């Protein structure tokens, strides 16, 4: 079983509407991806909590259909007050 | 003996085993394979990092026990293996451990939890 890039992106955006998502297919097999995700939902959260938010968005596919998803998560850079 | 009950909670024996292992071992790694023979690239990388840090660590091979393999995922609410625990607390999978190692946070965490490198 494998997943397509747009399927992963759609699931993440459904859960995190503000997210900026960039997904890279690491192995070309639909099973090993790297994703960089920026969303306000991550602000103030630990890395583990941030990744758990993404896994919840993927609704149980992580570790099953999707074998590997290297995650880089962060909150948007805060604009420095002028 | 399945690893999870109907409600998706880790069943008692598996949870108790995990709890005692992460309490008894300051650095506990649930992985695929063993430290000597890792059977997954991600598990192998975490073993490499721990070996590089030179801290003593214990491993459990989830491939030998399906109840543990599923139970550990429920225990930490984390869907993949490997899973690293330091001082009884879940630290993360391969990505997070690698990131923390590169930033020096992992070594700091080990020191905070009193995990020391054995004298040379």
Summary tags:
heterodimer; A: 82 residues; alpha+beta; GMP Synthetase, Chain A, domain 3; 3-stranded mixed sheet; 2 helices; 27% helix; B: 120 residues; Glutaredoxin; 4-stranded mixed sheet; 4 strands; globular
Number of E strands of chain A: 3
Sheet bearing the most strands of chain A, described? 3 strands, mixed
Q: Percentage of helical residues of chain B? A: 40-55%
Strand arrangement within the widest β-sheet of chain B reads 2-1-3-4
C-alpha end-to-end distance of chain B: 44 Å
**Span from first to last CA of chain A?**
50 Å
C-alpha Rg of chain A, in Å? 13 Å
CATH superfamily of chain A: BolA-like
The amount of beta strand of chain A, in percent, is 15-25%
Shape, per Cα inertia axes of chain B: globular
Mean pLDDT of chain A: 90
Cα-atom radius of gyration of chain B: 14 Å
Give me the CATH architecture of the domain at 12-93 in chain B, please: 3-Layer(aba) Sandwich
Q: Brief overview, please?
A:
The complex is a heterodimer of chains A (82) and B (120). Chain A is an alpha+beta fold and 82 residues long.
Question: What can you see in these coordinates?
Answer:
By secondary structure, chain A is α+β, with helices and mostly antiparallel strands. Chain A has a single domain, classed as 2-Layer Sandwich (GMP Synthetase, Chain A, domain 3). Helix content of chain A is 27%, strand content 24%. Chain A has two helices and three strands; from the N terminus they run αββαβ. In chain A, a hairpin with a 6-residue loop joins strand 1 and strand 2. Chain B has a four-stranded mixed β-sheet with strand order 2-1-3-4, with helices on both faces. The N terminus of chain B is likely disordered. In chain B, helix 2 packs parallel to helix 4. Chains A and B meet through helix 2 and strand 3 of A and strand 4 and helix 4 of B.
């Amino acid at each position: 079983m494998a997943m397509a890039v747009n399927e992963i992106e759609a699931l993440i955006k459904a859960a995190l509407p503000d997210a900026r998502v960039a997904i890279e297919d690491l192995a070309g097999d639909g099973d090993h991806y790297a994703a960089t995700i920026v969303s306000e939902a991550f602000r103030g959260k630990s890395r583990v909590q941030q990744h758990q938010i993404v896994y919840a968005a993927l609704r149980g596919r992580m570790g099953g259909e999707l074998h590997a998803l290297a995650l880089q998560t962060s909150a948007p850079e805060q604009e420095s007050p002028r | 003996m399945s690893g999870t009950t109907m409600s998706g909670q880790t069943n008692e024996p598996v949870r108790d085993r995990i709890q005692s292992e992460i309490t008894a071992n300051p650095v506990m790694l649930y992985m695929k394979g063993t430290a000597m023979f890792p059977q997954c690239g991600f598990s192998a990388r975490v073993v490499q990092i721990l070996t590089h840090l030179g801290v003593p660590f214990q491993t459990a091979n989830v491939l030998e026990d399906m109840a543990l393999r599923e139970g550990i995922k429920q225990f930490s609410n984390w869907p993949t293996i490997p899973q690293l625990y330091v001082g009884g607390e879940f630290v993360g999978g391969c990505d997070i451990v690698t990131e923390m190692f590169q930033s020096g946070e992992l070594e700091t965490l080990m020191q905070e939890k009193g995990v020391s490198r054995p004298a040379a």
